[in-house]
Amino acid sequence: MSLLGTIVSKILHPFGGGEAQAQTPGETATTPSADAASGGDVPKVDGKVDVEAVLNDLAAKAGQTLNWRTSIVDLMKLLHLDSSLSARKELAKELHYSGDTDDSATMNVWLHKQVLQKLEENGGKVPDDLKD
């Protein structure tokens, strides 16, 4: 599974079960129902998985302060994923980042926005204050 697919699955299907088919630019995908895929109680808003509730719950259990709302590194750490520069460059490639991957600050901001956008495109409800 792609890194983006792993991120989407861990957030939209936090109890396991279904494998999310995250959309990358130029693709279309269908995502199994979170209820059917999870086998658990997934917080929902307007019929969509409440991304904020899922991530806040994970953050409360993390044992460290992780600012998933603004940091792609912290978001990846929260999901127990490799957040190294090489992993983020891999995610950038997967999402067709056209900027300079050696400018990690700019790339990180772009990645965070793209991941939140992909979560919304794949059945997540992202807080309005985190949208472009």
SSE diagram, text form:
Layout: H1 3-12, H2 34-38, E1 44-45, E2 48-50, H3 51-60, H4 72-78, H5 85-94, H6 104-121, E3 124-125
Helix pairs in contact: 5-6
Domain DUF3597: 4-127
Organism: Methylobacterium aquaticum
Region (Disordered): 16-42
Plain-language structure description:
Residues 21-33 have a biased composition (Polar residues). InterPro entries: DUF3597. Residues 4-127 form the DUF3597 domain. Pfam families: DUF3597. The protein has 132 residues and is mainly alpha-helical. The chain has one domain (3-130). Helix content is 45%, strand content 5%. The protein contains six helices and three strands, in the order ααββααααβ. It has helices at 3-12, 34-38, 51-60, 72-78, 85-94, 104-121, and strands at residues 44-45, 48-50, 124-125. It has a three-stranded mixed β-sheet. Strand 1 and strand 2 form a beta hairpin. Helix 5 (85-94) packs across helix 6 (104-121). The longest helix has 18 residues, at 104-121. The radius of gyration is 14 Å and the shape is globular. The two termini are 27 Å apart.
